[in-house]
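Run: sequence + iron/sulfur cluster -> complex structure.
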Amino acid sequence: MANMRRGNFIPMAMLVGSEDVPSYLPPAFHVMLKPSGPICNLDCTYCFYLRKEHLYDKGTSFYMPDDVLEEFTRQYIEAQQVDEVHFGWQGGEPTLMGLDFFRKVVELQQKHRKPGMKIKNSFQTNGVLLDDEWCRFFKEHDFLVGLSMDGPKELHDAYRVDKGGKPTFEKVYRALNLLQKHGVEFNILCVVNRINADHPLRVYGFFKSEGVQFIQFIPAVEGTQDGVTDWTVRPDQWGKFLCAVFDEWVRKDVGKIFVQQFEVALEAWLGFEPSLCVHSKTCGNCLAMEHNGDLFSCDHFVYPDYYLGNIMETPLMQLVASPFQRRFGLDKRDKLPRYCLQCPVLFACNGGCPKDRFIKTPDGEDGLNYLCAGYKRFFNHIDPYMRLMANLLRQGQPAWLIKEVLRQKEQPKQKVGPNDPCPCGSRRKFKKCCMNKV
Ligand code: SF4
Ligand code: SF4
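>> structure
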């Protein structure tokens, strides 16, 4: 590992022999790329990336060199056993690399692409540097852009400030409009923190009024020795936030607006494994790579203990398939406390992200997720609605018919009687179908 500060450190992936899992290369995996390391042009209060700067020696150039970029591109494509390969660009702030860097990215992807392989890029940005040229590039090369925005101005500006502590909403709002003007595919990544969590409908309503169709809510959580930081969302806030947004969405927006948490929950109620790592049974297939080729187990575990090796020295495939990385992913399931194993919503929650498992269960066992109370509230609240949507889908009906069912039940214009056909289209009587399910 080129110049990370950690004394005589042996990459964990090399410690074979002491592990109880064999090497295994998943057919597809994802590496979150940090071409500018942790460097960013903003200074958001809750950002954990900025604190990573100190992991590297003073004077380190946080700029991914051409040889690392090409080597990663080649190895990453070679390792994937699927027809569509996703590159994820993150930071810090990736726009700081400049557009020419990403022109090179696209060229190298074409150079190393296997015949018939599709390549997609996703690009997470704070939006401040976006302009027409960036947006034309995104559109031309079919990038999916994630724009970080925490709601309307007063809520967004609570924590998302620049290096001088000044608000950033106007610049980010400009970026949102530019993305829309150029028809770039984008989603909003909204960090739910101690302040905006009390305003779920203002946050959601704002995005909706701006025509946003894809939203991800990410809970802001950081544990400290004394508890949590003062911007960390409280578990009850997180649960109430999700429930309030869900109640609005399920009545008005299913099929029109896609909220990642709700889509992923529906997967669980349909009997599939949730596709979001936070709620999947195991993880370990979403790694992170620094500007210099240093590979870590996950973007949330960029610490010396989770350093797998450098792709310029050890093949990426070997690092991903290493017993250490497999164990990292399996621990998500294997280290669940008994409290989770007995939980009725385990199938949807799976204990949440290991980085947030720092509280004790009611009977004193370690390893419970700090957000547990919020997750419990949310998953229990959505249960009847999810069952209904899952049933609709199993019957070959669209999930959005739930809006009609709820409208009939809650504010019928022309009341549907218990013996009338169910509005979900099942051809069964309302009383025998959806009437008592929600
Ligand atoms: S540690 Fe958390 S964020 Fe990282 S891959 Fe696992 S679940 Fe996902
Ligand atoms: S809701 Fe709580 S108890 Fe249930 S699986 Fe999630 S973290 Fe564990």
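>> summary
Residues 37 and 291 are 5 Å apart (CA to CA). The chain has a mean pLDDT of 91.
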